[in-house]
Amino acid sequence: MIELKSVSRLYRSDEIETTALHDISLNIRRGEFVAVMGPSGCGKSTLLNIFGAIDRPTSGQYLFEGVDLAARNEAALARHRARHLGFIFQSFNLVDDLTIAENIELGLLYRGGRSGSRRALVEAAMDQVGVAHRARHFPHQLSGGQQQRAAIARAIVGQPDLILADEPTGNLDTENGAQVMEILKSLNAGGATIIMVTHSPSHADQAGRRVEILDGRLVASVAQAL
Ligand code: ADP
User: Fold this and answer.
1) Which of 46, 198, 214 best tests ligand 1's pocket when mutated (most atoms within 8 Å of CB)?
2) Residue 165, C-beta contacts closer than 8 angstroms, at least 6 positions apart
3) Which of 34, 64, 85, 109 has its CA 20 to 30 A from that of 76?
4) Per-residue pLDDT tens listing for the chain (226 residues)
């Protein structure tokens, strides 16, 4: 599904040049659940941004279903994201003055579709993560765990084939973190490919593969028995 070929990403400023990613080659098959680990500053977010077509490699190639995204313009990348990708963040990133249902509908913003079918998709996504009873509430009225589940509903409402999660359990207690992991595993069992950055070894253990990054380099990619 995804192929990185010798991907490097440099950040240049007047005085310094930082190599955030160095010569990374990696294939991810459709249906995989991959955990990405590594210390702070090692390049995990940069890698996720490239997977998310938010950033481009300085050199090397990123292929999605065999298509080189580097050659695409911004509008084409936005279409690609709307069609194929769902994003989940550590800090939920819900919009404070929209209800939970409205927040989730934002996941369909660039997809079009009739309002009736949009509403049905929003309801299905809310049911899937167990927040339907909070549809008319605002984010601040929900617990952290509920907010993250609503954010997952926003990520999946458009039925993406790739879910990118940046420390999705980082702001949650053990119980809510475990709930989020169960939801991610059931999405994966339903066919979604998932790439999850995490600092939690026990959550990384629940993925089918663990990838480790150190100083911008890929140092391990290990299949895990589940
Ligand atoms: P992680 O997500 O693992 O904490 P990042 O991908 O955020 O790591 O950062 C990797 C390296 O790239 C770090 O040294 C960081 O300082 C640098 N970096 C990240 N973003 C930028 C940027 N916009 N400009 C300059 N340097 C950056």
Assistant:
1) 46
2) 87, 88, 184, 194, 195, 196, 197
3) 34
4) 999 999 999 999 888 999 999 999 999 999 999 999 999 999 999 999 999 999 999 999 999 999 998 888 999 999 999 899 999 999 999 999 999 999 999 999 877 677 778 899 999 999 999 999 999 999 999 999 999 999 999 999 999 999 999 999 999 999 999 999 999 999 999 999 999 999 999 999 999 999 999 999 999 999 998 7
- pTM greater than 0.85 (yes/no): yes
How far away, in angstroms, is 140 Cα from ligand 1 center? 30
In angstroms, the CA 162 to CA 224 distance is: 20
Contact (Cβ atoms closer than 8 angstroms) between residue 53 and residue 39: no
Contacts of 78 (CB under 8 A, 6+ apart): 110
Contact by Cβ (8 Å): 118, 158: no
Structural domain span for residue 199: 31-56+84-223
Protein residue with least CA distance to atom 13, ligand 1: 41
Q: How many domains does the chain have?
A: 1
CATH code of residue 140: 3.40.50.300
Q: Does the residue 169 lie in any domain?
A: yes
Contact 40, 203 (CB under 8 A): no
Element (H, E) at 213: strand 209-214
C-beta atoms surrounding 9 within 10 Å: 22
Any domain includes 68: no
In a domain, 61, yes or no: no
